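Table S2 (text version). Query chain:
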Amino acid sequence: MPSAGTNHFWQFSLDFYERDGVAAACLTLQDHLGLDVNILLYAAWLASQGRTASVADFEQVDLLIAPWREEVIRPLRRIRRWLKEPGPDASVGSIREYRAGIKSAELEAEKIVQDMIFASHLRLQKPDGDGPGDIRRALSNYLKMRAVSPDNDAARELDAIYAAFDRLVRTGGRQSGS
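Corresponding structure-token output:
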């Protein structure tokens, strides 16, 4: 069992999010279906650990992080996005600096959420088997929990996540730090 001080989920997320197509897919699913990027990444991380997240897993995680998401992350995201297009009377340089600070605070808030998820993960059951978990079934469970059905655009974004995960498994298998 990992120590509580090392958040392997965060390290996985930083790497996986940078993989081809993952960031765009996660943001599209967030904006169009209301999915939580941290939970999408959690599903992928669990699968990399040999575990397929269930509807109940997602319900627990969502309940855990919902207050932080609603009261901290979404307001920061809304401010950051609003500042993206400063008005003509604004000093663009100072707004850019301010926006960068908001973006940094938003990223730190995302890390706190992942720390919360990781701490709760330390109590979860063992892997499903010897290989990677089923990312497709896990994300299907998340969509069921959220009561959303992906349209064709969302299905393409999910396919991008599946493809990135499949490449991860082919090139490195399970990530360390279950």
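Notes on Table S2: The chain is about 70% helix and 0% strand. The chain has a mean pLDDT of 86.
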